[in-house]
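F.,

This is the one I mentioned.
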């Protein structure tokens, strides 16, 4: 049934893909040999159809032999849905709500997924050392992770404490360690987020199985707890973790922990826990550099098979600086569009497709600021930025300002045109290419423009 299909798909496509696309599917009606699956938007429907359509049909047919066709539709409120299923009002249909098998008698005989108590690591197959791009900001953490994966529990590396900001690769490194250990075999590895740890612990208390839970935890060779900062303020769970931690380290097992801050900065954790956490190896992952962001983008673009021009990669690395997850998300969206519409990736298309993301990451340079700086630089009146005067002394700076507006903001050509006395977007386009031409053959001019750019960017 649907639950099994979902879990097989999840195994095949990986967690991230699965959550991005497939949890959005709701079951629709069955009509003869055809089942309808509903998606919240057209884009999602097209994407799921192109990427997973055939596979979905195959899986359905294997599960329910009478079903021969899968129809993908955009959900509308009031669409007929299978018995026992409700179409949520909100566009973000959650996985839990939708993964309900249509046959209700079947569901009662199967334990809910959460009730499963084994703690074996569930790892995302894409997070391996091979796919981790190493650069200055993360090379130390990477080296430590590799070392622990090769020789768990060696002196000085236990516990391994990885910390850094959101989306800088902590989880990726932990999964990599897990994958490496499991590949070599003969070790039991447990991985869970601190949040999951807490919920398991609470569930164990409820079902009066804390002994089993503790036993399980203390029987692993390597225990990884992700995002430990979650335990701040959760005193009982901290206490439990502390005991497990001590028991494991004393028994010579490896502990790996991640958090968003160093042990000493995790105020709100008990002192004795912080002390013990800092006893092994503490490695921080620093914010990415431009070079690292470019390398990561290059590697992910290459893996996708879609050709992404260097100019686009540089543009993204320049615009999205805060975390790799967002950078990756932006690139994935570009790639999805390229695949979906079969169009090459260009800078123009990028600005279009990523409009919302780029807006959020705008360096907050406004067109007005650009106009002001440029006018000052060439000593013309600010009003001439929007005036109709065509004399070169004002026309050239105006073109430079348009060029910089295009480079430094995520405004579209028509938007930029409007700010320059309601000019047409073709005028802006012309200005941009004219400035590029002149920069290519007039070094002094190019230097001026670069200088302005740097002043505006900082
Ligand atoms: P964190 O756990 O620190 O918040 P993640 O490990 O979840 O961050 O990383 C966020 C995303 O960025 C993941 O998809 C991960 O694969 C990717 N990522 C982060 N750092 C790198 C890197 N150095 N090389 C390749 N991918 C990376
Ligand atoms: Mg993480």
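My design for it:
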């Amino acid at each position: 049934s649907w639950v099994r299909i979902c879990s097989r798909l999840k195994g095949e496509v990986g967690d991230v893909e699965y959550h991005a696309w497939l949890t959005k599917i709701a079951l629709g009606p069955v009509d003869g040999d055809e089942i309808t699956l509903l998606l919240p938007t057209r884009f999602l429907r097209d994407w799921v159809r192109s990427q997973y359509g055939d596979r979905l049909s195959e899986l359905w047919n294997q599960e329910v032999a009478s079903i021969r066709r899968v129809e993908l539709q955009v959900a509308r409120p009031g669409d007929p849905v299978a018995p026992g299923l409700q179409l949520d009002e909100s566009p973000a249909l959650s996985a839990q709500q939708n993964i309900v098998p249509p046959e209700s008698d079947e569901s009662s005989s199967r334990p809910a997924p959460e009730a499963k108590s084994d703690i074996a690591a569930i790892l995302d197959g894409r997070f391996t050392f091979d796919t981790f791009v190493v650069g200055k900001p993360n090379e130390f953490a990477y080296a430590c992770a590799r070392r622990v994966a090769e020789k768990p529990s060696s002196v000085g590396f236990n516990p391994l404490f990885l910390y850094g900001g959101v989306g800088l690769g902590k989880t990726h490194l932990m999964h990599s360690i897990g994958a490496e250990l499991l590949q070599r075999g003969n070790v039991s590895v447990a991985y869970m987020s601190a949040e999951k740890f807490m919920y398991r612990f609470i569930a164990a208390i409820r079902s009066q199985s804390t002994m089993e839970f503790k036993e399980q935890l203390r029987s692993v060779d390597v225990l990884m707890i992700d995002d430990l900062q979650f335990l701040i303020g959760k005193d009982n769970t901290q206490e439990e973790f502390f005991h497990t931690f001590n028991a494991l380290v004393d028994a010579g097992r490896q502990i790996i922990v991640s958090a968003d801050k160093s042990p000493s900065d995790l105020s709100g954790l008990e002192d004795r826990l912080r002390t013990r956490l800092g006893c092994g190896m503490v490695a921080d992952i620093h914010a990415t550099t431009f070079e690292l962001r470019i390398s990561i983008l290059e590697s992910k673009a290459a893996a996708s098979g879609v050709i992404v021009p260097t100019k686009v990669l540089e543009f993204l690395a320049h615009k999205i600086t805060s975390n790799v997850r967002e950078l990756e998300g932006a690139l994935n969206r570009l790639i999805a569009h390229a695949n979906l519409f079969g169009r090459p990736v260009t800078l123009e298309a990028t600005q279009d497709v990523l409009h919302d993301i780029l807006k959020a990451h705008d360096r907050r340079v406004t067109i007005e600021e650009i106009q002001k700086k440029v006018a000052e630089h060439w000593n013309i009146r600010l009003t001439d930025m929007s005036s109709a005067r065509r004399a070169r002394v004002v026309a050239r700076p105006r073109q430079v300002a348009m060029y910089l507006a295009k480079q430094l903001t995520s405004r579209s050509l028509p938007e930029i045109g409007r700010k320059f006395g309601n000019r047409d977007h073709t005028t802006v386009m012309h200005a941009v290419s004219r400035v590029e031409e002149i920069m290519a053959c007039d070094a002094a001019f190019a230097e001026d423009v670069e200088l302005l750019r740097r002043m505006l960017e900082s």
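The two ends are 56 Å apart (CA to CA).

Talk soon.
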